[in-house]
Design brief:
Length: 210
């Protein structure tokens, strides 16, 4: 099981390496998968240093390239940051762009990502929340809940296979039921959220190619 330190305990560069480790842990059986940290790529309009560049082969040997930017921010991610990443994707001819952050995303950022197929992921200490993946895939959750999360419900929520197979209506129902559940009656109001150094398991799929 991959263990991660809390985001508050690491530097921005260490967070980038943490994201790289997370990507490697969820790559599964992708053919010829590689993740390179701070790779410099050239285009017609100049050079770009990308936090993590992911490459793999699919569809009988076709090469795919994904750009991943990592933001260790305290404030919510703005639309402009997603736009900048999308522009890099367009300039470098990448198949996919993913923005991974320690903070949540403003509505404008989510709307732009939805319109342009940019994936948004919130990663805190190894606990990953999938926000948005492609133009045709609405994510059921936009933010981490601000109320305490019972460990049992948190683990259930993280079962990515259930969310991928469920319809949109079913996903919304499950999330609503989760919120209504709250903390068990035997716990006090000071029940802590699940430890952020838990093993990595993403909710949803980063949707590498769409």
């Amino acid at each position: 099981m991959t263990k991660f330190r809390r985001a508050s305990e690491i530097t921005p560069e260490e967070y980038e390496l943490q994201v790289k480790m997370w990507l490697e842990s969820v790559a599964g059986e992708l053919d010829s998968f590689s993740a390179n940290h701070r790779e410099v790529l050239s285009s017609a309009d100049g050079e770009y240093e990308i936090d993590v560049v992911v490459r793999f082969k699919a569809l009988g040997g076709v090469q795919f390239k994904t750009l991943v930017e990592c933001k260790k921010h305290k404030n919510s991610i703005k639309r402009e940051l997603v736009q900048a990443l999308h522009q890099k994707q367009h300039s470098l001819g990448a198949n996919k762009a993913i923005l991974v952050s320690t903070s949540d995303f403003q509505n404008g950022a989510v709307e732009f990502a939805k319109a342009h197929g940019v994936a948004l992921v919130r990663l805190l200490g190894g606990a990953a929340l999938y926000i948005r993946g492609s133009k045709n895939n609405d994510a059921p959750i936009h933010r981490f809940p601000r109320r305490p999360i019972p460990m049992r419900a948190f683990c259930t929520l993280q079962r990515a296979d259930l969310f991928r197979k469920a319809s949109t209506a079913t996903r919304i129902w499950r999330w609503s039921a989760f919120l209504r559940a709250g903390a068990p009656a035997s716990h006090s109001r000071r029940t802590a959220s699940p430890p952020l150094n838990s093993s990595v398991e993403a909710v949803g799929n980063p949707s590498w190619t769409s």
